[in-house]
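Reopening this one. Same input as before:
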Amino acid sequence: MAVKLIVYENSNLEKINHEKLRVETIVKNVTDAIIGFDENDLIQFANPVAIKLLGVEEKDLIGSSTEEIASQNELFNILIDETDDFSDLKLYLDGELSYFTKELFEIGVPNEGRAEENKTGLKRRGYFILLKNITRFYKLDEAKTNFIATISHELKTPISSLKMSLKLMEDKRYGTVTKFQKELINNINDDSNRLLKITSELLDMGQVETGKLLLNFGSTDPKNIVNYACEAIQFIARQKEITLNIKCPKGLTEVWADPDKTAWVLINFLTNAIKYSPQSSIIDVTVKKSSLGRVEFSVKDSGNGIEEIYLPRIFERYFKVPGSEFSVPGTGLGLAIAKDFIEAQGGEIGVESKIGEGSRFFFLLPTS
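Same output, byte for byte:
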């Protein structure tokens, strides 16, 4: 019996060692960084990728407490902070900029005494941190952005030439056109304007994504921004007999912003408001001093409004409120670009809306 027990124990021990070796081999060879801890917050293992990122020797890491390493290593201090809700980390790996996202996994065993129980009903016996390497996704996204920016730039030249040709065709000095030909010219002109708007938005988005967005800051009177934006959309407003109710008091503090980019955002708000407003309605354009020394610009329409469930996504790229795709043309990029423009200037952007009560889009900019 003693011999059989020894054989049984050795057999189980061999299986455990084999399984341990297999797991260690997997952990050491993955391209993601993995750091393991026991229930006393002592570091039990770290794979080669994790050791490279932390820049410490393995012998100095294994067996040490989290507090000891955190006091000496800034990256490790960030990793063990369970309250830190960062999105992605930019780190250098083998001399190349790489991107990682952090995930934390708990190791638990069935808990009979119910003490130290976690949310899963298991007793915590340790945990490990996984830094997932997402560099290839960033590279794919960068390639996509560069491709869109290149194509958009190349499209602008032929579209501009097309519009120039249309101008010449409408010039009576080069001959008259029939009513049918005039309709065709108008349709081509409308499509050209739509294509030009789309390519411009894609170029703006490309600049934001690649970090090449250039801002020309300066002290600007809010009234100048409002006047410029309202004049730019007067023609389309008159087509729907829409009245702009402008409330911009004199003596407002000047804002520290890029006037062109800010006017672009306001024009985008006004254009959308006109699209969604009924015929012969009123759009309120309001500028007022806000809290924390900022100035608020807002555009309030009297359209159908937006359902509450869609409000958190309204500034997402390519997002369009379901049901509006066919009635109102657009790429779903305008508001996303507006958000990037305002936040790049240290401002804040938002929307308030209720079904049947219209929508109010607003942004706040710091004063000079």
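So the earlier flakiness isn't reproducible anymore. For the record, The two ends are 89 Å apart (CA to CA).
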